[in-house]
Specification:
With about 375 residues, this protein is an alpha/beta fold. It is built from 14 helices and 12 strands.
């Protein structure tokens, strides 16, 4: 945080240790996608390039649109779009302000209280927000990122996938997206683990991503199933990548970050939502066309939030493993929910209506891009 700025209000924090019951829909997805980010509120004048042109006009007369995201590489579209001023350019004189969150529940709470209008968020909290409101609060309006999750291990203790049996493997939180993915992988190996306690043929150790590297160095865990940049941080400490989760998915694609919006905001300000989505689409194109510049922009924004940029040995491999996309990969979100049901952590939710891709597809059509599919889970 720059010295001349007053301290910003930290986003609300919630304990990630909520115990799940076999039929509890909400507690599962109230857990965050990953324990990443630093948690602060931010304006667009603190290090980015967002400037409002003198002749710009407000969209639909709206003064401000409030956008949330995590300071995490899998939220790279938001990081780069904020840093480079690409959202503000599309919004004209409607000012983009930003709030950074440490966890999915805090972002959902901010959305519910109308403290933010639009947010980048992971699949688990998105499902939580939707099911908790009985389908009345949010919609997923676009994709943002795929991949960026790996099983990394101590090569002295684990040399093959079969060696994972009997070892202590960290996941970010009980019931979060990576935890469910690991439990599903364990089940497919034919091994048994109690999902609640993490005890069984593999010891699943729920550990905050910020603590995981120290836990690895101390020897209290033998590896971790984690998102970037935690995976690359572990590799920098001597760990080896044993499995990239992308290899388990058709086409090596699965949703890790979505864009969500309050339903009332979408209804009242559809053109503003379209402007933010245009900014996201143009940011993803910027990332594709300028990978090094985009990586540097994301790292600059991370440094602003944390006070420290990621070193090249961490950000370079982490950035390469993430695919930024406009496609929400809706079918994979449905599969992730089914994995949670299979693990006994979730009663199968009704996700029909969770997507509204009409604004995105309007933007994509104008850009000459193919339409995104909602896998039958969109509004009619």
């Amino acid at each position: 945080m720059p010295a001349h700025r007053a301290p910003r209000t930290t986003a609300p924090r919630r304990s990630p240790r909520t115990r799940l019951t076999a039929l509890a829909v909400l507690p599962l997805f109230a857990l965050t996608l990953s324990a990443c980010g630093y948690g602060s509120d931010s304006d667009d004048d603190d290090g980015g390039k967002a400037k409002i042109a003198a002749d710009a006009e407000k969209i639909e007369g709206l003064d401000t649109v409030k956008i949330g995201y995590f300071p995490n590489l899998t939220h790279g579209t938001a990081l780069v779009g904020d840093q480079e001023g690409l959202f503000q350019k599309e919004l004209g004189a409607t000012k983009a302000t930003y709030a950074e969150f440490n966890a999915g529940p805090s972002a959902i709470e901010a959305l519910n209280s109308k403290s933010i209008d639009i947010s980048w968020i992971g699949p688990s909290p998105a499902i939580n927000g939707y099911t908790k409101s009985q389908g009345k609060n949010l919609r997923i309006i676009g994709g943002s990122a795929s991949g960026g999750v790996k099983l990394v291990v101590n090569p002295k203790k684990i040399k093959s996938l079969d060696d994972v049996k009997g070892k202590k493997i960290a996941t970010p939180q009980l019931g979060n997206t990576q935890d469910v993915a690991f439990l599903n992988w364990i089940a497919e190996k034919g091994w048994k683990v109690d999902a609640q306690s993490g005890k069984g043929d593999v010891s699943v150790v729920r550990t905050d991503n910020k603590i995981t590297p120290d836990a690895y160095k101390s020897g209290s865990i033998d590896g971790a199933w984690v998102p970037e940049p935690t995976a690359s941080k572990l590799v920098s400490e001597g760990a080896k990548v044993l499995l990239d989760e992308a290899d388990l998915w058709p086409g090596k694609k699965f949703v890790i970050t979505n864009i969500i919006v309050r339903q009332d905001f979408l209804k009242e300000h559809p053109k503003v939502v379209e402007a933010v989505l245009r900014g996201a689409v143009k940011t993803n194109q910027f990332i594709k066309d300028n990978p090094e510049k985009a990586k540097a922009a994301a790292n600059a924004k991370l440094k602003q939030h944390s006070g420290k940029a990621l070193p090249a040995k961490i950000i370079d491999p982490a950035w390469k493993s993430i695919a930024f996309t406009n496609d929400p990969l809706a079918a994979t979100l449905d599969t992730e929910a089914k994995h949670a049901v299979k693990a006994g952590l979730l009663e199968e939710p009704d996700l029909k209506g969770i997507y509204d891709l009409r604004p995105l597809n309007k933007v994509l059509k104008a850009a000459g891009e193919p339409a995104a599919d909602d896998a039958g889970l969109g509004v009619k």
